[in-house]
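Convert to structure. Protein one:
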Amino acid sequence: MTGTGRSAERPGLLRRVRYRLRLAAAWAADYAYVARWQVQGFLFRLDPAPYLEPAGGQAPRLPVVLIPGVYENWQFLRPLAAALAERGHPVHTVNSLGYNRGRVDRMARLVEAYLDSAGLQDAVIVAHSKGGLIGKQVLLGPKGHRIRHLVAINTPFSGSPYARLFFLPSIRAFSPRNALLRSLQASLDANSRITSIYAGFDPHIPGGSRLDGARNIQLEAMGHFRPVGDPEVHRLVAEVLENQGAPGSAQSRP
């Protein structure tokens, strides 16, 4: 009996080991991805203006406003910018966000100022991580009428337990106990205008990014950063935008 029990345990142990190795590989690939794009963003300061002119010969499509995550500038979302501009969407970047280190509510005010200065209506916010929290703050604020929809990729709507382990206020702000985060979480009115796309395994948000009342799309892909460059994510974001209709049309719901 003892020998039989040990034999039965081995396949289960091997599965657990393989799964943990798979998670470790995904984590390593995730950090390699973010390191490459952060270095590129630092060394090559590109002009985002070309993304305001989408590929020619297409009918006008909804404008997109990109909001990166914490310690990311707009260039980290360049794969998304290129994919959406290629599909005919004018893509706007809010350069005043810099590397997005400020409080969510303060960063939201910068986005609101940009919406006013650019005269945007019927815009869709496409955001990564912290950017999704900023996007929801904008939806709930005085300029929310300018935004048709928010597409959030790997956003910690419920926070991350790891945030409490950091001393930096910009990271600790993602603690589930953070007052501003809890206030955003309790505000359900805007959730029907949000699509949350999130990885099957996110090393930074172990609880996932599911949001009650929103359209939730869980990916097979793993990682917190790599999904930004995933063509499947680009396709899903473009599909959400298509479902929102054309500029000036009645707003559709997810």
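Protein two, convert as well:
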Amino acid sequence: MTVTALVSAKSCGVTASALALTLASRRTSLLAECDPAGGTVRAGLLSSTPTRGVGLYHLAEAERTSPEVFAQAVPSHLVSLDEAGHRKVLPGMTDPTQAAALTRTWPALSQVLHILAADAEYDVYIDAGRLAVDAGRLHPTLSCAPLIYGADLVLLTVRGTEQSLALARHLIRPLRAELDAHGSGADALAVLLIEGGYRAHQVSEALEVPVLAALPWDPATAGYLTEGGTPPRGYGGRRSPLLHRARSATEQIEAAAQRRRLRRHWPRPDHPQMAGVLDRLTAQATEGGG
């Protein structure tokens, strides 16, 4: 399955979107809350769930012992989001000052998340929070750069508003350059649109980045996912607009990841007719996988 990192230029619903995708996936799924500015799931959706002694910061202590201890410790730090245990979350930091201690943990965590995706067939979503860029590079402490570099897809989460587009526009060039230099390529970058005034094709044209999927503006469900409390009406029956559209979005994400895998394995030929055949085969493969 796929490891997808969600990032933003500012607070644009990354956590709510990542939770919605995790809960709506048709497959076993995991949300890794890795925002260096601190996590909110523990105090929100998990506020009535015992989480003392578990989470990202405690995993960092295991990583400092040995890679083996770290790998064995990961399952005990995952909290179930449903009774069946098919949706899990790795709670994030409770204090942003803990971010410096996690710098050496990110590469090991990236490896474990990819193992879960490849061998255990998890859909893995990383809440990487707000991007911090310093001199055209991802900040080594204020961003979980190794997780972003290692992701199969990086979704820049934006609202369909002028302000959100203006903030996101300045991140495109450095993020593409970083993914080219340290990740799997600039084509790993796409947009996850939180619908607003601008439509998907307008956002894609403005940012010169494809919009991979769009989620509706659903403040009732988003508020519950990020703040906890009483579920909104219709939530339990999966009738919320956010969760309904999130399910389709998970399929679009997986299809895009499959296309990238095929193209890396079978480089695009120079001959136009052969390239067209490859495009059709790729489309058929992703349709069959959905």
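Residues 284-290 have pLDDT under 50 and may be disordered. The beta strands are 3-8, 29-33, 79-80, 87-90, 123-130, 133-134, 137-138, 153-159, 189-194, 211-215.
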